[in-house]
Amino acid sequence: MKRILHVRCINGFGGGPDKTVINSPRYYPEFGFEGMVAFLHPPGDDGVRFLKQRCESANAQAVFFEDRGPSDLSVFSKLTQLAKRKGVHVWQSHDDKSNVIGVYAKRFHRMKLVTMGHGWGSDLGLHPWKSWLYKNCTRASSRFYDACIAVSKDIYEMYREWGIPENRRFYLCNAIDTEFYARQYSTSEARKLFGLEPTGTFLFGALGRLAPEKGFSGLIKAVSALRKTGLSIDLWIGGEGGLHQDLKDLIQDLELQSSVKILGHLDDPRLFLQCLDGFVLSSLAEGLPNVVLEALSEGVPVIATKVAGVPDVIQHRRSGYLTEIGNQEELIAGMREVATSEMLRSTLAENGRADMVTGFSFRERMRKVCNIYSSLLAENIHQ
Description:
Layout: E1 2-9, H1 16-23, E2 33-41, H2 47-57, E3 62-66, H3 74-86, E4 90-93, H4 96-106, E5 112-117, H5 128-142, E6 147-150, H6 153-161, E7 169-171, H7 187-194, E8 202-207, H8 216-228, E9 233-238, H9 244-253, E10 260-264, H10 269-275, E11 278-281, H11 290-297, E12 302-305, H12 310-313, E13 321-323, H13 328-340, H14 342-359, H15 362-382
Parallel strand pairs: 1-2, 1-4, 2-3, 4-5, 5-6, 6-7, 8-9, 8-11, 9-10, 11-12, 12-13
Helix pairs in contact: 3-4, 4-5, 7-10, 8-13
């Protein structure tokens, strides 16, 4: 079998792209491939233990290397040796540093290079020099890649603007296992199992890294504005990140301690999603967040900003409610309408789930990815 090596830099508990990375290897055998994963992580990172457990649960062969940051060049040789030792045929990178390492490793081991642009990183919250460095490293290294896969149309356009030839750039939406993300409990049953009851009559939820690009401060302020109009709503936010204390301070300043909860990292978001009456994606920058697909697949009404690939997935007022990025008034209006209209919620939940089942199958996406691998490897035969 041809061997695929996924390479990914992580920090903490990882993010949405790691779901794709970890789940991909179990689909490979039916398409004639086998895969493994290499994670780069900061020394002493607490999230590594959790990611190792996820890899074991998914039967994904994984190795972990300590990475001390952009200047740590030791991982270049370690990953190159891994690729040579395992006889890797396709290097599949998922972020800036793994893109650069792939170009280096190919000098010493013949293989095809494929990058997947997830768009989860943003310039928000980064020091200017880091933003400049990451963007230009990705731009420079992408030119050496045999295939550049974008999970959203804006990333695909970015590849085009960077001069990546049409035959080397591909657009493939994210996808999920819709059987895994299928509702098992009613909202009341899920809340009992979750062990936390909302105080309001309507519960919104959000998931993601507590980072500026997620727009959580605006979401919390929207809850405050809606409660001041007499609407009885709560908000639960799952996730960890650098803004944890800032968001807690904001909650206290707005006197929302009883109605807005930051729950920290959630090992498995399925039960959390089933607790919710509505899910909100307030992001200012994204690629195509898996959590939106998961909420839709669980039959939870979704309100989301028109960020990157989200409008390709959601039809406004049919399968979800869309708002302009950063438009606080639209966010408030959408949350109010979803909270007060049972008919709208029913429509969004039913159509959202149906669209995921028919159009966002992870197995079908893997078939398309493997077709790209096969085409690239066939070029070696004819050269």
